[in-house]
Amino acid sequence: CEDCGKSLIGECKLHGPLIRAKDRVIPSRARLTLPHYLTLRVLELRAGNQQILGVFAKKVIQKRTQFGPYVGQLSTKLTRYDESRLVLQVLKDGGKYFLDTPNEDCGNWMMFVRLARNQEEQTLVAYQHCGEVYFTTVKPIEPHTELKVWYAADYAKFMEASAVFIKEESDVCPLPPVAKEPVDPWICSSCRSTFATFGLLESHQCIHKDRV
């Protein structure tokens, strides 16, 4: 303690504990590379304080806007696998390597983009060019819309994946069957004529009204 000049184990009983100042939290490399018109949102908080993040647009992003290249470490195997993200590989010097991002300081913001579950929610397409992976918008992206990606057709073949990914939703209930027209005919109360549908009967009644 600098006040009483003693070396103590723990806090000084006379002058109390020291006031601790914490270092400023520095964003990771991946978060610092996020373009100004994009934002990260926490979609889910899992066990161990693990955040599931998504990338969202803050303004309209035009179709055919290219992002990249994807930053990652070349590796023969993945050290970190996330089922909500695309697995990416590239050809380098005749070899096929994974773009591995074991943590946020080894990649850029593109590592946060989640995969599209179907064609309707897909906004980006991933493809390989000159040994790098890029994402390009396939349609205009409106503000507050999440960016989601899937493989381009040729890149899907390279990755041995389907060109269009459709995830089976186990909790989707089948639609109820469409109600059919009643089997019994509709009968006109004026002339006793029969009709297959109520619409035809209604038109027929209008003819009676015109006559009156």
Architecture blueprint of SSEs:
Blueprint: H1 29-32, E1 38-46, E2 50-57, E3 66-67, E4 73-75, E5 89-92, E6 95-100, E7 114-115, E8 124-129, E9 132-137, E10 148-151, H2 153-158, E11 186-187, E12 194-195, H3 198-211
Parallel strand pairs: 7-10, 8-10
Antiparallel strand pairs: 1-2, 3-9, 4-6, 5-6, 8-9, 11-12
Protein architecture, described:
By secondary structure, this protein is an alpha+beta fold. It folds into 2 domains: 29-159, SET domain (Beta-clip-like), CATH 2.170.270; 184-211, no CATH class. It is 11% helix and 25% strand. It contains 3 helices and 12 strands, in the order αββββββββββαββα. It has helices at residues 29-32, 153-158, 198-211, and strands at 38-46, 50-57, 66-67, 73-75, 89-92, 95-100, 114-115, 124-129, 132-137, 148-151, 186-187, 194-195. It has a 5-stranded mixed beta sheet. This is PRD15 protein. GO terms for molecular function: zinc ion binding. Keywords: Metal-binding, Transcription, Transcription regulation, Zinc, Zinc-finger.
Highlighted features:
3 helices, zinc, 2 domains, alpha+beta, 12 strands, three-stranded antiparallel beta sheet, 212 residues, zinc-finger, zinc ion binding, five-stranded mixed beta sheet, Beta-clip-like, transcription
In short:
The chain has 3 helices and 12 strands. The chain is of the alpha+beta class.
Under the CATH scheme, which class of the largest domain? Mainly Beta
Helix content: 10-25%
Corresponding CATH architecture of the largest domain: Beta Complex
Q: Enumerate the spans where pLDDT stays under 50 for 5 or more consecutive residues.
A: 166-183
Summarize the main sheet.
Answer: 5 strands, mixed
Oligomer: single chain
Our count of domains comes out at 2
- Spatial strand arrangement across the major sheet: 3-9-8-10-7
Number of strands: 12
Rg of Cα set:
31 Å
Task: Encode the helix/strand succession as letters.
Answer: HEEEEEEEEEEHEEH
Work out the helix count: 3
Task: Note the gap between the termini.
Answer: 109 Å
Global mean pLDDT: 82
How would you sum up the global shape? flat
Keywords: Metal-binding, Transcription, Transcription regulation, Zinc, Zinc-finger
GO molecular function: zinc ion binding
Protein name: PRD15 protein
GO cellular component, one term: nucleus
